[in-house]
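Wait, can you check?
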Amino acid sequence: MRHADSRVRSAPDDGTALFRQDATFCARPGVGGTGITFEPINVPGSYLRHYASQVYVASGSGGGDHRRRAQP
């Protein structure tokens, strides 16, 4: 599992440093005050979010579709 263009998807390991960064998520205290949230190591301040049956890397604030493009 890795993120690219803000979307999280299944992808085979291509052996690159970028893949390793895109596929590394750190557990953080839940943004909503409970549970845990996963933050991509290379996009600090963004988190895994579920929207419209897809998983995205997005801002941790607000509701709805607040997708944010991942920075290379």
